[in-house]
Amino acid sequence: MAKTISIAIDGPAGAGKSTIAKRLAKELGFYYVDTGAIYRTVAYFLDLLGVSPKDADGVHRYIDELNIDIYYDETGLQHMLMNGIDVTNDIRTPDISQKASLVSAHGEVREMLLDMQRDVAKENNVIMDGRDIGTVVLPRADVKIFLTASAEVRAQRRFAELQAKGAKDTYAQVLKDLQQRDYQDSHREIAPLKQARDAVKVDTSDLDIDGVVAAIRQIVAQKVGI
Ligand code: DC
């Protein structure tokens, strides 16, 4: 099998990872793997069962009953299947964002999802985004990007997205949730959010989407010549 190319994009919530990764994947003809969606699916499943994301015993008791599948439709959109049910849209709420952050701190959950993520990258050229892709999931990724922006800019982007969906959340609430998630994701014991030593940091605070895509294309071209 020919060697595959993997591009890891890590960073805090709202830095623009998924928007940028989707665009790059389309331009390069790579698969886009949104690993946050996998943690969200776990959180959604436990939530339906009434298990708190902080309850390690509850997580342990039910996690084996969850079967996760990922598939890509003809537009390249990643769909999440929870025991055969498509939950792609259901997992995109502020409540599930918080619960995914909490549930992702359990070593048992991270362990269970590791091979699933690595397997996709073994067989395909991928752009994978998350929190620990360059540090843990794909430590030998060909290109590693750490995408970030100020908390205020990230909250403003999230707020605009939520407003477009008709949600009632205030900017202050969105900022508070985001800061809490940043703290949880970067202070957990296992695979915390942090920049890999060999990752290139890209601050998107003052760049538009085209600017970020162009900056990353340049880094990719330098590292792997595509
Ligand atoms: O990227 P996202 O906002 O959809 O991720 C939701 C949560 O999942 C995030 O707050 C932390 C967790 N997560 C993780 O721990 N590791 C990843 N690689 C991706 C997400």
Name the hetero compounds present. 2'-deoxycytidine-5'-monophosphate
Morphology call: globular
The rounded Rg comes to 17 Å
Order of helices and strands: EHEHHEEEHHEHEHHEH
Count of domain modules: 1
| Number of strand segments | 8
Largest sheet: 5 strands, parallel
Distance between the termini: 19 Å
What is the C-level CATH assignment?
Alpha Beta
Which spans of ≥5 residues are poorly predicted at pLDDT below 50? none
The CATH topology: Rossmann fold
- Give, in spatial order, the strands making up the sheet with the most strands: 2-6-1-7-8
Describe the structure.
50% of the residues lie in helices and 16% in strands. It has 226 residues and is α/β, with parallel strands linked by helices. It has one domain (6-219): 3-Layer(aba) Sandwich (Rossmann fold). The strands form two sheets. The chain has a five-stranded parallel β-sheet, sandwiched between helices. A hairpin with a 5-residue loop joins strand 3 and strand 4. Helix 1 crosses helix 9 (209-224) and helix 2 (35-48) crosses helix 4 (94-103). The model has no long low-confidence stretch (mean pLDDT 96).
Quick gist of this model?
The chain is of the alpha/beta class.
Pick out its properties.
226 residues, alpha/beta, Rossmann fold, five-stranded parallel beta sheet, three-stranded antiparallel beta sheet, globular, binds 2'-deoxycytidine-5'-monophosphate
